[in-house]
Amino acid sequence: MKKDYYIMVIAFSVLLITGCAVESHTAINTEKAEVSITRSVSGQKIQVAIGQFANHSSFQNGIFSDGVDKLGSQAETILITFLQQAGCYMVLDRNNMKALARESNFNNTTQNIAGARYVITGDIVEFGRKTVGDHELWGILGHGKKQVAYANVNLNIVDVKTSAVVYSSTGAGEYALSSRDVIGFGSNAGYDSTLNGKVLSLAIREAVNDLTRAIDQGLWRPE
Prior knowledge:
The chain is α/β, with parallel strands linked by helices. Helix content is 33%, strand content 32%. Strands 2-1-3-4-5-6 form a 6-stranded mixed beta sheet. A hairpin with a 2-residue loop joins strand 5 (165-182) and strand 6 (185-186). The radius of gyration is 26 Å and the shape is globular. Residues 137-141 and 180-187 have low confidence and may be disordered.
């Protein structure tokens, strides 16, 4: 009887553990682009449209690629966000013209589409990942692994009137995720696909910040 009692207690405890669902959430603060001091004070915004943003790196461009530039499309979305955060650009949306026209018809309004003074084009010139590791005493005492993602992007500001490239900026970044196992204890991180988006955001943010600083420093003067 005593043995049966212990079995029932253990079984009931297992049911309690497996039967309870735990929900949690955490808000994560994301880094934003630098705000232009000069343009924020004057209130004058530069009208820009996004041109081609292409992935020219070897990443996802091999013989087995499906031909869809997913990385370039992701980069364009990130670029729009950081330009808007800088506070000195009026970013004109050219990717949703049909949807905008449809909503305009629903509202019985006439569209008055603004023209951009400049077009921003971009290139992902370098993008890649690697995994590096080390062993302590041939792995007997432990080992470590580091996942590294790297990105390098270029931005070009093109004058619509003259087609001249009036300024170019670059941004690069590296993200790393490390794990270490010491005598059987520690963490062992698997492949983290989020590093791709994180390092791409970092590189583009640096390129936008470089562009914004150039405006504040008078290195190029938008009309």
